[in-house]
Automatic annotation (TrEMBL):
Native organism: Selaginella moellendorffii
Keyword terms, alphabetized: Repeat
Protein name stated in the entry: ACT domain-containing protein
Domain of life of the source: Eukaryota
Pfam families on file: ACR10_N (PF24914), ACT_ACR9_3rd (PF24931), ACT_ACR9_C (PF24926)
Length: 406
């Protein structure tokens, strides 16, 4: 097979469902990276086929917009992002180094000062996403005079910052959103004092949060434990991993994320919706280890099954706890070994609070190492409207979780 022109690497046919075809050189974790982008754009996969010979791959996805996706899908931007995730065309037939490490992200500090209003942080997260900026950390505070000061640690997917034109574009869009003559926006490179994307010990977390996350116990099961089986006899060259579970946001991404973290390669895979049990996803993945061999070690098989069950059944953790006279929302999501956090979390959390008409007093995103896992933890201090009973805590947690999980 010759080298394809870039316009043929990713082909999108908008329809119901939309068909997305990717035909490009292979690399470790490519399926995870592509399904992550599809997830980030608010799309749900109803079917998927993946096949590769280890050098060249063909992936076909059938996708539909999620109900919570209010704006039209930007198909051109989606295609652009997916092409960027594909390996360079000159790497065709070149084995991928499993120890390949991407260069560190260039981080920037965005400071915003404006009048407060309901849903402001949600609108900010939407604008930053539309500007193709990735938010890695947030520190948002409300002042006694009704003003808000927001600090965002961001990276630019366009790789145009810190150019003057790109800086002006970002600040103008944000000022238009904020309105008012007293809004301010400053953008500069983030210095080492902001900590980069390194994980820190969970010293300032409530003991109940850190203890639960470190134990690996999932107390928020959705009542539908996935069925996960491994068969190393069906294929002479591959191990078959079969997963059956309730469909939700990011289902295939979470399955492939686990395999990427274990450094396992997918030779062939299929996602389909069950015709018998509506809303149930069936996933078959023929996998090998990094050395190309089958997965026959019982201990490795057990570890993989346990991790798939945990991360597929519940890839995130949500709770609302009292903090003195106030209430604080906690959302924890695992970080990929590559350093990428879960997409859309800030957008979905703030959307759920906006739907409930719950205002935010402070917000913070931090990365913490707890046990053998790295977590991205979102902490949101809520403005108590006077009726924050235990039932209201449960309602907030339930709504946030439902929006995150779809």
């Amino acid at each position: 097979m010759g080298v394809l022109p870039s316009e043929e690497l990713v082909v999108i046919h908008p329809a119901d469902p939309t068909v997305i075809t990717v035909n490009c050189p292979d690399k470790r974790g490519l399926g995870c990276d592509l399904t992550r982008i599809i997830f980030e754009f608010g799309l749900s996969l109803v079917r998927g086929d993946v096949q590769t010979d280890g050098r060249w791959c063909l992936l076909v996805f059938w996708a539909v917009p999620r109900i919570t996706t209010a704006k039209p899908i930007q198909w051109g931007l989606l295609r652009k992002r997916m092409i960027a995730a594909c390996p360079p065309e000159n790497q065709v037939f070149v084995p991928v180094d499993p120890d390949f490490v991407t260069s560190p992200l260039k981080l920037f500090l965005l400071q915003v000062y404006s009048a407060d209003r309901a849903g402001l942080l949600h609108d900010m997260s939407r604008i930053l996403w539309e500007l193709e900026l990735t938010v890695h950390k947030v520190k948002a505070s409300t002042c006694p005079d009704g003003k808000v000061i927001d600090f965002f640690i961001i990276s630019d997917n366009k790789l145009l910052l810190p150019s003057r034109e790109r800086t002006l574009e970002v600040c103008e869009r944000i000022k238009n959103l904020m309105g008012g003559l007293h809004s301010k926006c400053e953008l500069k490179e983030a210095g080492p004092e902001y900590g980069g994307l390194m994980c820190t010990p969970a010293l300032n977390l409530p003991p109940s949060v850190s203890e639960l996350l470190s134990s690996g116990v999932n107390s928020q099961q959705n009542g539908d434990t996935p069925r996960v089986t491994i068969d190393d006899l069906l294929s002479p060259a591959h191990t078959l991993l079969q997963i059956s579970c309730r469909d939700r946001k990011g289902l295939l991404y979470d399955c492939l994320r686990v395999l990427k973290d274990f450094n396992y390669q997918v030779a062939y895979g299929r996602l389909s919706m069950s015709t018998i049990d509506k809303g149930r996803g069936e996933i078959d993945l023929f996998i090998t280890q990094a050395d190309g061999r089958k997965l026959v070690d019982p201990e490795k098989q057990k570890a993989l099954c346990e991790r798939v069950v945990r991360d597929v059944a519940n890839p995130l953790w949500v709770t609302v706890l009292p903090r003195g006279p106030d209430s604080e929302l906690f959302v924890a999501t695992p970080i990929e070994l590559s350093g990428k956090g879960r997409p859309r979390v800030l957008y979905d959390v703030t959307l759920a609070l906006k739907m409930l008409d719950v205002c935010i007093f402070q917000a913070d995103i931090g990365r913490h190492a707890i046990g053998d896992m790295q977590w991205e933890i979102y902490r949101v201090l809520l403005i108590d409207s006077g009726d924050f009973s235990q039932r209201m805590h449960e309602l907030i947690g339930e709504r946030v979780r439902n929006v995150l999980m779809g």
